[in-house]
Every structure is written in structure tokens, then in C-alpha cells.
Design goal:
The chain is an alpha+beta fold. The chain contains ten helices and twelve strands. The chain has helices at 5-21, 26-34, 39-45, 52-78, 102-115, 175-182, 224-239, 297-302, 319-326, 342-345, and strands at residues 120-122, 127-129, 153-154, 166-168, 189-198, 209-219, 245-252, 255-264, 273-274, 277-278, 286-295, 311-318. It is elongated, with a radius of gyration of 37 Å. Bound molecules: phenylalanine (PHE). The site of phenylalanine has 12 residues, from β11 and β12.
């Protein structure tokens, strides 16, 4: 028997009633109305049972009904209060808040450690005339020691007759004589210079760009004890109360005597052993971090300071290495620090 429009309208009306009842439950709505055998499809199928001249109007009614169902379902999906049962005490999804890059974190901490004992943080140019990173530091033009600081030279239209070529400074020691000049060659000087440095070397343990921090103290009566005390202070503050430092004889053109500085290993506390086995992080209990020494008289002279009246010490080493040692981190590839890879950086 062919159906009538009235019958169809009745069915649609009762379906609308049911729609209002479960209007906030998305799963139920989808099952009851939109699924393959749901109300919408079932009613649509009835079109075929109608006389052809009724089908146009019936189709319009059914389409309007389908749109209403879809509208209600969409509303239920976007409104949490209507999406069935909602637990408002559930912790929210934590938004991805960024943090300071590990190297910047280390720089801030290092600055604070030295500021507490009277050092002043400065920054000197990363692009500098070679006088500052080399000649002023007692390294004559052709001295082979300069090769150790494999340096990028810049095409320089303003080549300075006295100060030489422009370079990307390969160490923060370029700040030594600059600081003496800033203070008009009048000690006391207590400088902490943190800056980027550049060397022509890139492999798993080196990046062409890295960071160093440089300490310089010049005053009357400054001795190696002050140097050692300052380094010990840093070791304890940065690596913890058990950390120790040691200095070993070395050679730099700009310090005399010169030392290499080691810190005790943070994994085995300097013993070289973990649970009776050789510490795998350090092997010997110590890590070499950088250089230090008593400021060479020629460097004081380059800064117009009388080496007969004043003495000083200087030290300098890499931030990246200093930082990863604290974490007991053996980075397979130090270049990861500058890769911008969030999977790596988010760990710090
Ligand atoms: N500038 C030296 C380097 O980069 C380290 C150093 C700094 C040594 C200060 C002595 C004094 O290797």
C-alpha cells in the first residue's frame, strides 16, 4: 500500500521528538539517526513507497529533517556541556609552553654565580679586529700558535691600519684588553665576558659557532690563589658542593704561568669509579674544561696597565661543554644543540 504525505510527516515529527530527547549525547545521536540503519536512512528509503508525484515534496521534508539532525549532532559535538557526561575536575591538556634554550640557561646561571662575587658581565664584539683576539694578547702576526684558533677572516672594506684584519673572534679573550680600555686602564677589573665564538671546525664535538665565558681580574697583589679560589667557587656553585677543580701546567701566549682547568666528574664525584667499575663518563675522575693563567705582562701593557704595579688572572672556557658535563650528558653530536630539533631541546 502506498504511503501518504501525512504519514511521513507524522513519522518525521516523532523522530524529531526522539531527537530532542537524546540531543546532548553524540554517540547515541549518531547511532540512532545517522548510522546506516538509523532514522534518517530508514525514512529516506520510504520515498520509494510514495507515489511519484508526492516524492518531490516528501524529499524536501526529509532533507530538512536530515539537516536538523546534522545541526543537532554538530552542536552536541562542540558543546562540552551537552556532550553527554563531562568531568569538569579532570586536569586540562597542558599547553606547550616553551623554555629557554639550555645554553642560554647556562649563561644566565654562570652570570649570576660570578656577579655574586663582584664580577661585572660584559659583552664584546663577535666581529673584531685581530688586534684584540691576537696581537694584544702577545701573539705576533705570524706566530704558529695562532693556528690553534682556526679563525674566520672577514672581507673588510674598513681595514684598520693598526688593528689589522677583521675576524669572527675565535675566543672571548678578545675582551681582555677591551675591558682594560673601557675602564681607562684603571684596576680593579673584575670582568665576566660571555659571547659567541667562531672557529673553522665542525664535527661531532665541535660547532663552528659556540659560546665561551671569560673571567679577568686585575688588581694589586692578585695571585694564583685568587685564580684557584675563584675556579673552586664556580665548581661548587655550578656543579654542587662536592665538586672540585684542579689546574695543570699548560701554555698560552697571553698567560704566564698558564694552566688547563679540570673539574671533578659529576657522575663518579672524581673517584673515576662507579659501583666498583671504571666510570664510563670520565674514565679518570676529571674533565678538562678550558684554560687559565696569570695575565702576561705584555697583555697588561697592551691595555696600558703597569705590570710592575698590577697583576691579574684570566680564565676562559666553553659554555656548551661546561653545561653538558654537569648533566652527565654525553652528546653523541654536539651540533644537536643548534639543530632546532624540539625532540632534543624539550628534554632540558
Ligand atoms: N682563550 C683560551 C682558549 O680559547 C682560553 C684561555 C682564556 C686561556 C684565558 C687562558 C686565559 O683556548
Amino acid at each position: 500500500m502506498a504511503g501518504t504525505l501525512d504519514q511521513l510527516q507524522e513519522k518525521i515529527a516523532s523522530a524529531k521528538n526522539a531527537l530532542q530527547k537524546s540531543a546532548s549525547n553524540v554517540a547515541e545521536l549518531e547511532k540512532q539517526f545517522l548510522a546506516k540503519h538509523g532514522t534518517v536512512n530508514t525514512l529516506m528509503a520510504e520515498l520509494k513507497t510514495l507515489a511519484p508525484e508526492l516524492r518531490k515534496e516528501a524529499g524536501q521534508l526529509l532533507n530538512a529533517f536530515r539537516q536538523e539532525v546534522e545541526h543537532v549532532v554538530a552542536g552536541a559535538k562542540t558543546s562540552p556541556a551537552r556532550a553527554g557526561w563531562t568531568d569538569f575536575t579532570m586536569p586540562g591538556i597542558k599547553p606547550n609552553t616553551d623554555h629557554v634554550h639550555p645554553v642560554s640557561q647556562a649563561m644566565d646561571e654562570i652570570t649570576r654565580i660570578f656577579e655574586r662575587i663582584g664580577f661585572i658581565r660584559v659583552r664584546y664584539p663577535e666581529v673584531d679586529w685581530e688586534w684584540y683576539p691576537f696581537d694584544s694578547l702577545n701573539m705576533p702576526k705570524d706566530h704558529p700558535a695562532r693556528d690553534e684558533w682556526e679563525t674566520f677572516v672577514i672581507d673588510d672594506p674598513f681595514r684598520h691600519f693598526k688593528l689589522g684584519k677583521m675576524v669572527l673572534t675565535p675566543h672571548t679573550s678578545n675582551g681582555q684588553v677591551r675591558e682594560m680600555e673601557r675602564l681607562k686602564s684603571t684596576p680593579p677589573i673584575r670582568m665576566i665576558n660571555i659571547a659567541r665564538c667562531y672557529r673553522r671546525q665542525a664535527d661531532v664535538t665541535h660547532t663552528e659557532m659556540f659560546h665561551q665565558f671569560e673571567g679577568l681580574v686585575v688588581d694589586k697583589g692578585i695571585t694564583i690563589q685568587h685564580l684557584k679560589g675563584t675556579i673552586d667557587h664556580f665548581a661548587r656553585e655550578f656543579y654542587g658542593p662536592k665538586a672540585k677543580s684542579r689546574i695543570r701546567p699548560f701554555h698560552f701566549m697571553f698567560t704566564e704561568p698558564s694552566f688547563e682547568v679540570d673539574f671533578s666528574c659529576t657522575i663518579c664525584d672524581g673517584t673515576g669509579r662507579v659501583n666498583g667499575e671504571k666510570c664510563r663518563f670520565c674514565k679518570s675522575g676529571w674533565h678538562e674544561v678550558g684554560g687559565a693563567g696569570m695575565v702576561h705582562p705584555n697583555v697588561l701593557k697592551a691595555g696600558n696597565i703597569d705590570p710592575e704595579k698590577y697583576t691579574g688572572f684570566a680564565f676562559g672556557w666553553g659554555i656548551e661543554r661546561t653545561y653538558t658535563l654537569r648533566k652527565g650528558l654525553k652528546l653523541d653530536d654536539i651540533r644537536l644543540l643548534y639543530s632546532g630539533d624540539m625532540r632534543f631541546l624539550e628534554q632540558f
